[in-house]
Amino acid sequence: MDRHEEFMNRCRELAGQAAQTGNTPVGAVVVRDGVIIGEGQEATHPGNDITCHAEVEAIRDAVRRLGGMKLSDCILYTTHEPCILCSYVIRHHRFGLIVFEIAVPSVGGLTSPYPILTATDIPVWGPPPLVIQLKRG
Length: 137
Hints:
There is one protein chain. The protein has 137 residues and is of the alpha/beta class. It has helices spanning 3-20, 44-47, 54-66, 84-92, and strands at 27-32, 35-41, 75-80, 97-102, 130-133. It has a five-stranded mixed beta sheet with strand order 2-1-3-4-5. InterPro entries: APOBEC/CMP_deaminase_Zn-bd, CMP_dCMP_dom, Cytidine_deaminase-like. It holds the Pfam family dCMP_cyt_deam_1.
C-alpha cells in the first residue's frame, strides 16, 4: 500500500470517530519521517469551540508531543481540504506538504476564492506548501 493511502486511512478512521460524536467527519494526521506525530478529529461540538478542526487538533497534538512549533519537515494529511482557518495555522507552522482527499470549494484554503494555503503575497509565511489532492480509488 502506498504511504499516502496508509496515512489517509488513519485520517478516515479519525473522521469516523468524529462522526460518532456528532461532529463533521473530518480526520487529520501530522507525519514526520514516516511516523504519525499528531492526530486530530473534528471536535467543534463537544466544547463549542469553532477552532477545534481536525487539522488544528492534529497540529496542536504534534506541537505538544514535539515540545516545539517547527513543523516544516512534516506532512499534514486530512480527509478534507483545509479550510481558511486551518490554512492559516498550516502556513504559520510552515508545512511543506499537504495531502487531502475531498475539496471544499466554499471555504477551502486552496479552491475557494480565498486561497490562503497557496498565497505567495504574505512574506512572513515563506513559500506555500505543495498541495496534493488524492483521488479515492
